[in-house]
Amino acid sequence: MTRFVRKFGLRAVAFGYLAAVLVGPLALVFYRTFENGVGPAWDALSTPETVNAFKLTLIITAIAVPLNTVFGIACGLAIVRRRFRGKGVVNAFVDLPLALSPVIVGFSLVVLYGINGWFSWFQRNGHEILFATPGIVLATIFVTLPFVAREVVPTLREIGTEQEQAAQTLGATGWQTFWRITLPSIRWAVVYGVVLTTARAIGEFGAVAIVSGNIAGETQTATLRVEGHLVRDSLLGVRQRCRDDRGV
């Protein structure tokens, strides 16, 4: 009996914790979404503003993910396979988005691209960066920068350079070595990094909220749309409660 408890007790605790932290809130979200039927949920998802918010989110994700995938692979190869001055600075820069609050990232972009910022030329010449799609793309690219690189770097260190050196000894060029040896060896790290990058790009809120302007139908992303509905429903609930209290 004691052996059985030792064997399965820890697993039960782990699965119970996972259910409480992940499955429970997710089940509550689905319950609250469909508690009044499918109709209200579909009506909320099919409005022009909501459809535009999802389209904008997908466009931004489609831009940010490929760029950060290429950057992550190149940066990982540079950090692990090359020796150059400033390597530590590059390594630290990759981790910078993880250390900064997304809100700070948004404010930094406002300072840089605002009318009095370092890159105010764009604003003065009619090229909208802030409160437009380019600003949202820049914010999303920055906050999702580290994920592919941070998955590729340890994988490159683990596989070593023996196969790459053997390929070069047999006459393979740098590109042939990369496509036939290096990339297949790190493909799962790249896939995992892409999944994390995509999830962060779709769910980013703080930096996007600062630089987008949250204009419904124009610069409102999916997360901002959800937050808008939540705030609206909360205000409606507060108003109804105040009316009930006054009625009493």
Provide a descriptive summary of the structure in words.
This protein is mostly helical and 248 residues long. It has one domain: Orthogonal Bundle (MetI-like fold), CATH 1.10.3720.10. It is 81% helix and 0% strand. Helix 7 packs antiparallel against helix 11. The N and C termini lie far apart (60 Å).
Short summary:
The chain is mostly helical and 248 residues long. The chain contains 12 helices and no strands.
Through-space gap between termini: 60 Å
Rough outline: globular
Q: CATH homologous superfamily?
A: MetI-like
Specify the structural class: mainly alpha
Number of domains: 1
Main β-sheet description: none
Helix content: over 70%
| Corresponding CATH architecture | Orthogonal Bundle
Task: Flag low-confidence runs.
Answer: none
Q: Quick check: average pLDDT?
A: 83
CATH fold title:
MetI-like fold
The level 1 CATH classification is Mainly Alpha
Work out the strand percent.
Answer: under 5%
